[in-house]
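User: structure tokens for this one?
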Amino acid sequence: MRSITLITGIFFLLLQSCYGLEITFKPLTKVNGISISLADIADFDVKSDLTVALGSQIISQSPSPGRNILLQTANIKNYLINSLQIPDSVHWSGPATILIHRNGVSIGPEKIQSIISRFLQKKRNALPDAKIRFIPSSLPLPFILPTGNLTWEVIPSSPGIISSSSISIIFSVDGHVRKNISVAGRIEALTPVIVAATSIPHGDVITADKVKTLTKDIADCSSPYLDLKELIGKKTKRIIREGSIIEHSWIDIPPMVARGQIVKIVLNSGALHVTTTGIAKMNGTINQVIRVRNISSRKLIYCRVAAPGIVEVRL
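Assistant:
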């Protein structure tokens, strides 16, 4: 109904105002939207309600972003005369054809890498303290998106990010998804770590001459040693080959409290501060809960290992 009303209104305006009107087609023009109006491809010698209404008439669909189409002005003229009953007194001028280009936003490899780099930078708190970058195995060919409010969502293939084998990017324009790509590759995380300077047998004690610090990629490591002081004097739980990054799970961590050791039991509750002694019934590392026998009461209680030889009562 709106279309019929608009055409009827234009018809009566044409009857009253078309005499002397000149419509000049442009040889080429650029558009942003999905459709082409008469105002996009032609100029009017006067501005009036009539020319505004004529200019709003849809002539054709736009090409894909970044593409061109060629329209015949004779066809456009005939379409408008027949559909709107424009009088013969209207003067038409301009070229026989119009080249129309639809604007777009070009997304190339450099933009893709920049988007991924910015994503990794935003996620720094969730990543190891290292120099991190994404190394693509290949990048998608450049493509063109429509103009508008361009946004994107970055989704790594692994929730842990650093072990991802690909990164997906979903592009939206004005809230509508326009492109979804996946970039294969790997994440590199370079940082100084402790590596074996020589092969270290199982059960051997780590000494300074057996290890060294090198900058390595830790993307595939679960928990590497970063501080040499934490490692010296500890025993290995497995054979460590020369050049390997030493991980925490490969090292035997001595208990902070040993089974059978006399320990100080501490109870802190508000203003109440009580200490007594006990005997550890099991080995324990920092913050581990172990069983301890109170020497005074002979009762078995559960305590948290707080420091070497010190445990805290859990209330």
